[in-house]
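User: Sequence in, structure out. Go.
Assistant: Echoing your sequence, followed by the structure tokens.
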Amino acid sequence: MKKIILLFCILFLLTGCAIEKVNYSNIDELLNDMLSEKVDLSNTYFEGYKYYIPRGLKLANKNDYNAKIVSGKNKYYLYIDVISYYNKLEKDFVESDAYYSKAINYNGKKGYIEITKINNQYFVEIMYNYAKIETLTDESSLTDAIMNACYILSSVTFNDEVIETLVGENALDYQETIFDIFGPHRNPESYL
């Protein structure tokens, strides 16, 4: 009985599960696989929108609707276009003679991808789902950069009620009035 269990364990260890990285032969196939799936995950929340940052990437800093996300030597610059989302503006894209240039349309969301070769590096610019990511990467990391960017962009989800209060016609007035309660008061009627 022990020999059978030992044989089974050895067999399992030798033929057990293995993680294999998916190797894409072309960018069209990669885009189709990444953007055709709906991503319902989110781990990063801000004013009126949320998105998912994949494992291995981290948010370096955020300023208004701009964010810098880093992964090893790659830096991703993310811009969320809340105004275009609120007004439902879609920009037309004309394909260029760059290394790779294509208009994309998945799940009712439009955008484009353009990759430009600069010396030995690739400038990747992807706009999709009212968000845009730009990164500069080398050829060995090009597939990973596109995958990470697509994953982030396809996970962007907007909160219409919050966006209405930020940019809509009923936007809240966030102006502040400075009132110094620690200074000398000349008029006793100005006390709280």
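User: And one key feature?
Assistant: The first strand starts at residue 44 and ends at 46.
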